[in-house]
Structure formats: structure tokens, C-alpha cells
Amino acid sequence: MNRRREAALVVTLALVTTAALTYPLAFRLGHGGRVDSWDGLFSIWNIAWVARTVVAEPSSLFHANIFHPHTYTLAFSEANLVAGVLAAPAYWLTGNIYAAHNSAVLISFVLAFVGAYLLVRHLTGNLAAALVAAVLFAFCPFIFARSAHIQLLMTAGLPFSMLGFHRLVEQPGIRRGAELGLLLTITALACGYYGLFAGLMVGVGILFYATTERMWRSVEFWSGIGTAVVVGALVTGVFFLPYMAIGEIHGSIARTLDEARVYSADTGAWLASPARAHGWLLARLDGWSEVLFPGFLLTALAAGGLATALRSTFASEARGAQTRAIRHAAWLYTIIGVLAAWASFGPNAGFYTLLFETIPGFGMLRAPARLGIVVSLCLAVAAGVAVTRLTAGRHGHWIATALVLVGLAELAPVAYPHYEAPRFPGAYRILSKLEPGPVAEFPYYNNRWDFPRHSYYLVGSTSHWLPLVNGYSDLIPQDFRAEVDELAQFPTNAGLSLLAARDTRYVVFHRELYDDATWREIELRIAGFRQLLPIFWDDDAWLYAITE
């Protein structure tokens, strides 16, 4: 098969399988998404902000319209720059925030498929092995359990980064090093966790090939690695400056080992999966802290790949360069997979603590269990080794087809989560036509566990993009925490003073979010404030301007 036909086959299969396993996402692109989840709503706002601002106001990219008047607010959590850029065409073509977000989700699956395919194709030289591995990695259960966090769907950087590393090993030099540095940078900008994971995988790979292939003697190899480090550090460093700025303003954003313990894997996590075919397994678990099960087919094929590597290691006839390369790949990814699985259990298992205390950047992570995606990629590579052997005979294409179909059947989720978009109040439409000014929205949720409910207002702000006094993110400013109880009682004189200090121009009371008794009280209090000038009201929300 020539390259064009092969590329067309891979992309077509990636598109079709993505549309099928994420149904109805591709067919209801602009009608909703993970609006059932506060994190999902936050993600939709985040992607819309980046998609809009990277084109319209790139200099304001990190000064998102939340927590007014704070600056660098996009850096209060994962910036999601890559997902936002991927979403930009859909955003500007349709003006629909859900189409923008969902297009980025679909593209992330397609890129993960293509990335895993290219990596395994490069390592094994086998089309069938690459296709099977691509299916088993791109649609692994880990991904479907994290659909509310778009950065965790950006898994493509992991196989692409490792592909860049293998090319550097085979053709060491500055050019390949620069390519690897750029790939690692893109991976980090897509997801901070995955950028660090990719860097660690490359680090293990450096030690592995420096030993097994005596690359430690190659000046070209080390110049390439040095170039990758410099390119990655310089480019990523530019985008890390806002995070340094908020560290100076708001204090350290580093995590603790105690936080990591909360988000660590347990044994149940490695058997938990949202796939329909694994439902019976969940019923037999006493509990699980995370969702990390790679799948039966992937695990079985990976075991076969490791067995193949073992036989090859000790077989006298297995001395060819291609056989040696495949064997080394199997061993490398086995080592990485074992280390990643070990670290996923968090501080109590020991290895994660070592990484936390010695690897720069690890202190910003809080979820060791997310290393599960590294394990899935390593298993996919090992599975590719097994499929290479399984499909060597005359019926190889039928075996590969069967494995792809079985893999898709096993990994298909019960249903991809997709919920109809909420209907926003008419007050937002009016705000978009008024003279710009900061907005405060009520109820002003003051309970720490209710802070995520401000995400509803964030998504609503995409109708007008005015600055919001409200906000939600990983980092909650101290002044927000200090003033939230008073603002929760608004309208009050003290609350009005707090809003005036923020130059707040408009307030929105969401009638539908109050119970009847509380709303009657709010109405009475509003009537006592002549500074609140009514602009618009309906059954959903009342909009006021704050006058001098």
C-alpha cells in the first residue's frame, strides 16, 4: 500500500471510529456537551475564551474575564492553549461555544489515534500492528472517564513526543533535537501533566538507549538532546511566565504529598472502566479511587508482546536489526509502563515521593493516578509487537481486522456524555449591547464546595465577554474568599461598597436560581437601594446598573 492510500486509510478509520465511539457528539456539535458538570462548564468557557482571544486580542490571552480585577486569571488553572487553538476555526465559523469545544474534543481523539499509529508503525514497520495499537490507545477507558476535563483528552502529545525521540535516536543531531523539543512543548501546552509525563518517558528512553545502544558515546545524540532541552525550555518558558507572575502575587501554587494521596490510584482503580463490556467487572469491585483499567484485549496483547521480546532476547536466530529494534522498543515501554504504574499509587508506594522530591515541576501535580495514560500507551506499543507476530502469516489482514473490531466492541462506553445546552436568560443578550463594564452575578455562592457553581456564570459570559467579579478556577484568590460571605448576602450596603471598589457596573440576579422565600426577601431588599437601576427583567433574571 502506497503512503497516500495508507494515510487516507488511517485518517478515515480515525474519523469513523471517533464519531462512532463519541456518538452523538459529531452529530450534535453545537447543541451541548458536558454541561452536567461544573468542571465541564468551566472547560467550555476556557476553550471559548482561548479560541476567541487568541485571534481577537492575543495580548489579553492570559487576562481572562474572571475574578475581576485580577490579572493573569487564565493561569489560575490549566490554560488549555492547544485545545483552544484547535477549537478556534469552529468558534469563528459558527460563533457557537459548544461547537468549538466539541470540535476540539473530536480532534483530540483523531490526533491520539494518528499519533499512536505513527509511533507503532515506526517501531514495528507493521501497518496492522499500528492500527490495532491506535484503536486500543486512542479509545482506552482512561479517556472516557475524563470527558469533563479537555486537557486530559489531549493525549496525542505522548505518542508524538516518543516518536520524535525515537527519530532522534536513529538520526541523532540538532535538527531532530529541535523537533523533539517542539513536540514536548506542544504536549506541555496541551496538558501540563502530559508534558511532564512525556519528559519523564524521554528521560527513561535516554538512559535506556545510552546503555543498550551505547549512545552515551555519540556527540550527535547528546547535542540533539541538549537542543531538545533548550528549545523546550525556551518556548515553554515563555508561556510559563504568567504562572510565575501569579506565584509572586498569590503565593506558591505547588501541591503537597497529602493532596497527591487523595488522587492516587488503588488496586480497584486498575480494574475500573466506563466501557459497556466492563460493566460486570465494576459490579464485583468493592470500590475504586480512579478509572485506569486498560482493557482485556490490550492487556493480553501487551503480555504477548513482552513474551515475544523475551523469546527474542534469548533466541540465537533473532539477531536482525529490525528484530533488535522491536525487542528494544518492547523492553523500553515495559520499563516505562512498570514505573508509571508504580508511581500512580502515589506517595504511599514510595516511587512517587522520590519523583516529587527530585523532578522539577512535579510539585505542581496532585493526581498521580493520571499516570495511567502512560501505562495505556506503553501497553499499546507492546501490543503492537504482539500483533506484528500474529499477523505475519497469509491471513494477517483478517486477524488485524478482527482485533480492531473486538477492541472497538470492548472499549465502547455505555454512552458518551452529552447534555443539551442550558437556555441562558435574556439579560445576557442585553448585556452584550450595553456599554462595557464589570458584572457581578447572583446568587454569589459562598460555600467552598459551591464555588464551582460560578462556572454557570462563566459560560453565560461568553454571550457578552464582559469582565466578571465572579470566578472559578484551581486557584481562588484570597480576596475572593474573604469577601464571598458578604457578597452572598447582597444587596447590602457593605456588598455594594465591595462591588464599587471593583468598579462593578452591572449586577444580574438569577431569579430561577433562588427559592421562592429567598427571592421575596431579595426583591424587598433591592427596592431599598436606589443605586440599583433596573435595566431588564424576565422570569429568569433581573439586570441592574449600579449608579453613582
Low-confidence sequence ranges: none
What is the topology, as strand order, of the major beta sheet? 3-4-6-5
How big a fraction of the residues is strand?
under 5%
Total helical segments: 23
User: In terms of structural class, how would the helical and strand content be classed?
Assistant: mainly alpha
Task: Please give the number of β-strands.
Answer: 6
Domains counted in the coordinates: how many? 2
Radius of gyration: 26 Å
N-to-C terminal Cα separation, in Å? 74 Å
SSE run: HEHHHHHHHHHHHHHHHHHEHEHHHEHEE
**What helical percentage do the residues reach?**
55-70%
Average pLDDT confidence is: 94
- The coarse overall form would be elongated
Oligomerization status of the protein chains: single chain
Sheet with the most strands, sense and barrel status: 4 strands, mixed
What would your notes on this structure say?
The chain is mainly α. The chain folds into 2 domains: 3-411, no CATH class; 426-546, no CATH class. It has helices spanning 3-21, 38-56, 81-94, 97-124, 127-138, 141-144, 150-153, 157-170, 174-190, 192-212, 219-250, 257-262, 279-282, 296-314, 321-344, 351-358, 372-390, 396-411, 426-431, 455-460, 478-488, 493-501, 516-527, and strands at 32-33, 419-420, 439-442, 506-510, 532-537, 541-546. The strands form 2 sheets. Strands 3-4-6-5 form a 4-stranded mixed β-sheet. It has a two-stranded antiparallel sheet with strand order 1-2. Strand 5 (532-537) and strand 6 (541-546) form a beta hairpin. Helix 8 runs parallel beside helix 10, helix 14 (296-314) crosses helix 15 and helix 21 (478-488) runs antiparallel to helix 22. It is elongated and about 90 Å long.
